[in-house]
Amino acid sequence: MTLQQLKYMITAAEAGSITEAAKELFISQPSLSGAVKEVEKEAGISIFTRCRAGIALTKEGMEFLGYARQVVQQMELLESKYISNQPAKQRFCISTQHYTFTANAFVELVQRFGQERFEFILNETQTHQIIMDVKNRFSDIGILYFSNGNKSVLQKSLEENDLVFYELFAASPHVFLCKDHPLANQNSLKLKDLQPYPKLSFVQGNYESDYFAEELFSNEPAEKSIKVSDRAAIVNFMIGLDGYTISSGIFPKYLQGDDIISIPLDEDEMMRIGYILNKDAELTELGEIYIDALKKYRPQ
């Protein structure tokens, strides 16, 4: 298979459609379809499944694309250095659960890097997708947490995918809510205090369970429950609906200044926040910069 074919496969995967990918590549749809079939035949696997909506990566295809991206990226580095005589364009990708401090550390990474040519990606996504992103080498680092409730299942998933978890710090659980919330004046809260109010949590798609949830005690019954996909929506529902969510308590200002506060949750649990890497991978220079920036948010 050729480097050009690998680029075709990456574009097709990102577009989710042979038709759209062919347009981006300025080639005919039959030419792209033929290239895909040739690569699949040579690799001996089905890389894509076809459906009415377009195409999707198979499990084997996800792994294949991870290696394909590495090959293409290394070639781009070679071309930059030895052919175009430009500084190498650095790529660095992080997949993370929805934490404000991971975004702030990302800003510091970009500021400290200082070179003119780079492609940095911050992907706030579902827990299982973080694992797949790192396994398939789309992301250099994944950020998630272990707790007493999820550790056994997440550790098993990491081992099955040849990944390793490195703990950064432990944080006690806190309740995030609006400063005008009826419970805002409490020094600490119990789970039973929260029952009358809407519980806010992040969608986990096909992996909706306590093990993949981003919030502690997600298996506690709730009369009112709202699931969202982004941090901004959670903030809006805290302010407009007296909703709450449970997280680490780190950097509680979120996106709304002093409108959101955090109150310690008086329950027996801890969040052990860390990063995941492939077993055969080490932190790159960019990875070390990012992890150093994350450590600054360690609870005092």
TrEMBL record:
**Tree of life domain:** Bacteria
Matching entries from InterPro entries are given as: LysR_HTH_N (IPR000847), LysR_subst-bd (IPR005119), WH-like_DNA-bd_sf (IPR036388), WH_DNA-bd_sf (IPR036390)
Keyword list, A-Z: DNA-binding, Transcription, Transcription regulation
List residues of the HTH lysR-type domain. Answer: 1-58
Does the record's keyword annotation contain Cytoplasm? no
Q: Which GO terms describe its molecular function?
A: DNA binding; DNA-binding transcription factor activity
Q: Does the keyword DNA-binding apply?
A: yes
Q: Name one GO cellular component term.
A: protein-DNA complex
Family note: Belongs to the LysR transcriptional regulatory family.
Protein name (record):
HTH lysR-type domain-containing protein
Q: Which organism is it from?
A: [Clostridium] clostridioforme 90A6
Q: Taxonomic lineage of this organism?
A: Bacteria, Bacillati, Bacillota, Clostridia, Lachnospirales
